[in-house]
Fold these 2 entries.
Entry 1:
Amino acid sequence: MFKRILIANRGEIAVRVIRACRDLGIESVAVYSEADRAALHVREADYAVAVGPAPARESYLNIERILDAARATGADAIHPGYGFFSENAGFSRAVAKAGITFIGPPPEAIEKMGDKVEARKLMSAAGVPVTPGSPDTLETEDEVRAIAKKVGFPIMLKAAAGGGGKGMRMIENDKDLASAVRTVASEAKSSFGDGRFYVEKYLNRPRHIEVQVFADTLGETVHLFERECSIQRRHQKVVEESPSPFITPAMRREMGEVAVRAARAVGYVGAGTIEFLADAERNFYFLEMNTRIQVEHPVTEMVTGIDLVKAQIEVAAGMPLPFRQNDLAQRGWALECRIYAENPAAGFVPAPGKIETMRLPDGPGVRVDAGVYEGAEVSLFYDPMIAKLVAWGRDRNEAIGRMRRALGEFVVTGALTTNLDFHRWIVEHPRFIAGDFDTNFINQEYRPEAAKGGDDAHLAALLAAAVMAYRNGHNGAPAAQPMAAPAAGGAVSPWKILGRLDMLRR
Ligand code: MV4
């Protein structure tokens, strides 16, 4: 087993990996930029090495600096987390060349899945269903037209080098085809330096459902069931859950088998995710593979009881998978809300700043993976995530109830804005509660004014409460009102909000 692992990342995922190291009795090495001197991951690790200026390009994304830090501390493995170097075959090769183990898949698997057309061809050959469309990249408008004739309009034009929502265009009819082809080709050329594109049948309002896979170096590959990730905004996931409220047991079995086949086809090792799009008829199609641990891995951990990061480390050390397919089952239900320093009322712009006070929720069925602490700064240099709030229950209703309770307890104050109210709105939405949603849900349902919990009557009541408190000489005594949010439904009363503000000022 490894003696010391360097974590080439920051924030909550760095802290998550440090925890796994500690559980395994392995020492941890944090790296940090100038903006992260006082960051939580630096405080929590056994060792910490400065790797450069605040911009990620000059620190977290500087291969030489990261390798120097690993050599200087005698780290025998590097965990990349997600983002940064997690899906960079060049980095993984450089790590191996330095005689250090990269905790992740072989570089060849990263490369095969990184090329969207290559992946589509490989998957198709391996018997993994892909969206009907072109078998390879196309060159001309007429080739696009021929595929459109075969699969029918509307179609989706996708840049070969795109992915994650970049370089895509829907074409509704033949009239729009020529100009759309020109636009996608030239955008792909300028954004990715690769103008190749391919065509798929357009799926209307698909669901995004992904399957967690895991493989060891001894030839064993299993899946850990699905995550429902359809609650997204501009290709950023907002709420994830497992199981999916949409799929049937038969579909679950089939998706799991297909996902294992997909992972085997690229010689996968470690933790990976096969993303599928599912249509209303419950057909599902391979979309892409993420060759890393994902932000939303905790919902899978909560329903399977498996520590995925610990298993990543064990498998990278050459140990066999600590579980077999037959040992795995889904128990209960888990939801994850991504709590961000962002302003939903202003188009979700990042709204970072210093956290003056913070109260993290806990209690039965609640897990918080936070990247910050009270008094810390959410930096404008990086992803403004504050924490992942995860709730588990025996069934979906209990999980949603606990999530509501936890969101009610969660307090963040300071020179930043959070999306907590946005999450409170989602978990109260009748369509969310019914499990009746697809990737268009937020687009279709969210109006910032309606979700602020701040209509005029509410504001008037808040002001009235403030006047009353002032008249009562309420200047520092503990709040008289109960502190908890209402058990079910409805906004928190202004009186209670006042009580909370009062308590924070104490
Ligand atoms: C699609 C699609 C409909 N039809 N492909 C967006 C992310 C990129 N990786 C693939 N995406 C889509 N591909 C076909 N043939 C709709 C989307 C899509 C989407 C997919 C997953 C999650 C959210 C989404 C939001 C808008 C569009």
Entry 2:
Amino acid sequence: MDRKIGIDLSRHIYEMQREHPAATGELTGILNQIAFASKIVHREVSKAGLVEILGLTGDKNVQGEDVQKLDDFANQVFLNILGKSGHFCVMATEEENGPVCIPDGYGRGHYCIALDPLDGSSNIDVNVSIGSIFAIHRKVSEGEDGTEKDMLQPGRKLVAAGYIVYGSSTMLVLSTGNGVHGFTLDPSVGEFLRSHTDIRIPEKGKIYSINEGNYPYWSTGVREYIDFLKQKDKESGRPYAARYIGSMVADIHRTLLKGGIFMYPADSKDPKKPQGKLRLLYECAPMAFLCEQAGGKASTGHGPVLDVEPTGLHQRVPFFAGSAHEVDRLEEFIRKYDRK
Ligand code: P6P
């Protein structure tokens, strides 16, 4: 009968808790609230072309990037629902300069959350998959209200992380530290039903994913690695296939399922972003957590992303993630060609 009905998010987490009694019921509440918020975003994203919600707000966010109307909508939805859930003591999102306090009159919980409410928003108007990314830590500061200290924890301490990809179907992919599992939204019942149990990244993959337009700005090691992947060598399956969607959630989703390597290196293109474009707290750390939980790796080029001690809410890091064999080889090229 399970196959007929399907296993929803709550049932899945309950099953996880039976195997890991240390997990509190609070995580169930948190993930259900994230799922609820994502259903609201899904509703707007899926009809974006039909209502006046496409395009720009005319504002710029803390990154200096144009804010899309859907960016702003998703940011408000997640902050409103999660801020009033009673589970969090403080929040941070790509769209907000500093930590976001819990509204007066609402309970403070034992967790904090970093969010990219709508990643890949530059693709919204061309109907390419976009996503929401979340990273959940336990509160570590004293007192009832959370602080920036709660947000600035290394990814190695994450309690849970995941993303929602709004694509041909809407999927929630998450880990609570016991493997990676995928849930597909069934709009007919309005529930996320488990569709991918224990996702494992293939040890090797013949796909590389990077914005090659930045080639002139990369380090020698990264250029040598990309050149290597493009050489003809039948035995090792080279040249690899190039796939780049330009939406991190979509590129990581493919990498989790098909293997290979996704990269956003440091580059010399923009002096304001010497460490590349992707943000540590709400893009790289949660995606690194998922990749490691799925048997893959995620590196800054010099070591695990999960071991980076954050110094700022919007700090950027170079990011290389996917099949363990590919990430190891990338690091070898950087050790060989790039002087520290
Ligand atoms: P580029 C989307 O704007 C984003 O933050 C990620 O989702 C994506 O991986 C990256 O930027 C794409 O950046 O410079 O290749 O367009």
